[in-house]
Amino acid sequence: MQERAAELGKNLEFIELHKGLDLDRALSKTAAAQGTDVYIAAGGDGTLAAVADCARRHNKVFAAIPCGTANVFAKEHKIPPTAKEAAELALNGDIVTPVDILDVNGKTYLCHISIGTYSWITLHTNAEAKRRFGRIAYIFSAIKLMLQERIWKFEIVIDGKRIVRKASTIMVTNAGSMGATTMRWGENITSDDGIAEVCVFKARTIGHYFALLFSFILRRPHKHLKEYFQVLDEATVRGTRDLPVRADGEKISNGGFTFKIVKHGLQVIVPPAFKSGSAAAVAG
Question: pTM score, two decimals?
Fold first, then answer.
């Protein structure tokens, strides 16, 4: 990648993320020293969100190289799945489009926020198993939880309107893709329409989960087991105190969260294959 950047007459500086790193400060120094125009993140959706947060804060263009388990952001925006192709796009792409972001307490998240069964599964799936088996590793954790037939009561406030639901999972989606699969959380979910969806899933038994699975495979509604609400501005979800909340694959809290949808909050380099009414070519 360094050689390719040199061929294109561009400077490239690497920052290795590690626990305790003040990424915002590190990127600020790089931007000040070299006049950085693009922040490129290589990793899973959690890493992408962390770098995107800095790109948003510093008003820089963002590019992604997917190297994680699910790679939801990359799949949603048609970014090539191989590191080499994605790196070429990041260095030489000439199309930038604005996408929406989910803001939680001032932090940027790109794709999903979940509480309930789904977040419990991702939190309790062994990291080594994920590395070796990818998304298949989640199945073992899922079966274990399904056998417990867990369901919780949630209070949801969407743009000032309060509703209460019993559900196994609440999923906030800014991206329709489920990641390493062609299935989607919903058919009309996009990342650049200024709308986030709150998806309420009510599965309790294994039979319910199989019914949900087939509804996703067949891309059909299932009124009894899944319900959707649109968020135009802000929403709060509150559940049982010990339930983990996950955002883009990372645990961010327990019990509940509040988020805002920020329309076109991030500028992203995308390939021509990404269809967006707001895409525009970058001059020069």
Answer: 0.84
